[in-house]
Amino acid sequence: MGDVIRIGTRGSKLALWQAEWVKSALENRSPGVSVELVVIKTKGDKIQDVPLAKVGGKGLFVKEIEEAILDGRVDLAVHSMKDMPAEIPEGLCIGAVPVREDPRDVFISSSGRHLDALPQGARVGTSSLRRAAQLRHGRPDLDVQPLRGNLDTRMRKLDEGQFDAVVLAAAGVKRLDLAHRITQSLAPETMLPAVGQGALCIEVRENDPRIGPLARGLDHGETRRAVTGERAFLHKLEGGCQVPIAAHGVIDGERLTLSGLVAELDGSAMIKETLSGPATDAGEIGVRLAQRLLDRGAGDILERLKAEADENG
Question: Whole-model pTM?
Answer without folding.
Answer: 0.92
